[in-house]
Give the backbone structure.
Amino acid sequence: MKEADLRKNNEEEVRSIISEVSNGGDGMLTGCLGQRYLGCGLRSGRLYLKGTPGNGLAAYLEGGSVYVDGNAQDAAADTMNDGLVAIKGSAGDALSYGMRGGRVYVLGSTGYRTGVHMKAYKDRKSVLVIGGRTGSFLGEYLAGGVIIVLGLSGEGPITGYFCGNGMYAGTIYLRTDDIPKCLSDSLSVHAVDDDEKETSIMPFVREFASLFSLDAEKIMESRFIAIEADGSVARGQHYAAV
Amino acid sequence: MKSSRYRIICYDDCIGCGRCASECSFDAITMKDHHPVFRHENCVDCQRCVELCPRGALSITRNPNRFRSHAVFSEDAIKEIRLQAETGGVLLSSMGSDADAVPVYFDKMLLNASQVTNPSIDPLREPMESVTFLGSRPEKVERLPDGTLADNLPPHLELSVPIMFSAMSYGAISLEVHKALAKAASKLGTYWNTGEGGLHESLRPYCPNTIVQVASGRFGVHADYLNSAAAVEIKIGQGAKPGIGGHLTGRKIVGDVSRTRMIPEGLDAISPAPHHDIYSIEDLSQLVMSIKEVTGFRKPVIVKVAAVHNIAPIASGIARSGADIIAIDGFRGGTGAAPKRIRDNVGIPLELAVAAVDQRLREEKIRDRVSLIASGGIRNSSDVAKAIALGADAVSIGTASLCALGCHLCASCHTGRCAWGIASQDPALTSRLDPDKGAEALVNLVNAWTSEIKEMMGGMGINSIEALRGNRLALRGVGLNEKELEILGIKHAGE
């Protein structure tokens, strides 16, 4: 696999690696120090990153895989359409905003506004699995797809305030018995039974576990709760046309 | 029985053909024994039946019944109170604000013309330049080591006329309207804008004249969509409802609308009020640059905002964010649906906003970093000329373009029952609009306005749009106070 060190700042070399990956090959960039938009719009190939890539990592991802050995900053996987992002560390705010398809796996924790307005469409279903915990506003405006938060690391509640505010489709699974604080009245919460665990959570936890060398079965021993939009509650504003 | 706002009147010329009943999509006319029967309370005054009656036998009037007049509590005010008391609902309206208490400054400004000195130009005999370029201008001329000019020009839009079509989404309006706009833009050498509902596959051939939008819901946004267009517009706000998001109900998300937005059929499409990843100019800059990154720095990026109180510093921030073009949508901008109180009470008139922004950007010496597009209530060619003289590079027309396609501003867009096939997804209604004829009407309209603009410019002794832009000396105010004149940056008539 070709490799370049971003600290040495050899633009030529970096470009050749990006083009190698764009053509479906493998490539590695080491020494990431906040460089923005790495893997932006990538369609194929495997991009390995070491260090701390900057904001907008893997934005508009169309395919291929981006692996990060380190932490990611804000707005990673923004409006991602397909492909895979695996972060062996934590991620900042606004992760997976408006994501429509593909899978994002974060071993550590994530910041505020994680998974806002994620979607699903036809064969595309956005999947976000977080090993640690998340900040407030997790899955606001969720319009489809699945968010799974495992709480394997970190301290305190598994997610912050206002989880799932305004969501109208999709599911948030939390590996806990505790209902998040300030949960909106228009959401419903249920304990996840074994069938649902097996079909809706296990496939993604298995991939998550294999990416980060963890034991999926052990993770799945714990109980999960699911948060969904309550279909019986009217959404939005009540209008009177003039 | 509830009183109706309008009364449909049928004259003796009626031959009982039933055309009016088949055209009415609001269930206000049915036929019984070869005679039309009216349910006046359902009439929205869209004028479809009147225009299509082969005998000219119909007219619609306001119901002569009126409430006892009161200087403060008007009939509409009382009716709205009663409606809300009955339903508990937020008042919903559509199209742009008709709040008549807010002045239309275009009507209070007059254009100049040359007399004796500085002779006027006859556009029929002398060249008159209407081509307009939108985008960022390089700050200085750069030369290569061999002395030749370096091409450091950022990507631009080239408009053969300074008039574009405003963003209106597929879902809010029909595919037939999108087709008409796309065809007209392509024929005219200008641009149309998809709005936030994505770009229908069949319109790909018009991509070179298409601006695609990225709004908070990110519907239909993906790398190919962004790369297919001539430019990408980030929608922060719109003039009809500044600070408010959008909500297209699930029943309008059917078939191709669902495919184009890339969301399942029947699921609501909610555009949150803010972009949840934009909390600052730095965040905006990040989105601008990520769009440039994914489009290979080949497309200009537009940021559209509503005209609001601090528009000048907001525009200054946008100009510094890396955006190439700022679109300012004024108080009178149209919409498919907006809460009436927001529409009629939030935001500021376009004229003041454009003047304030142009002035501020000039003072900060960053005017050339961005181009300005003005929209929101532009009705005719003199509004265009005045907007450009106040500092806009070009304008966009939404409501006016829909009027060219048959809209009569009945403001019933939110019902989805538009009898003119504009704001509807019902094939029985949308098939009433022929995209080819629609495109022809739009081309005619823009060509007519362009001829008028050229004549106005010629009269002023100006022979290019470039020379009119920000040329405040071409304007004088009438009946405006000193503060208004100061903000508009113009003198009073007679000065």
Summary: The radius of gyration of chain B is 24 Å.
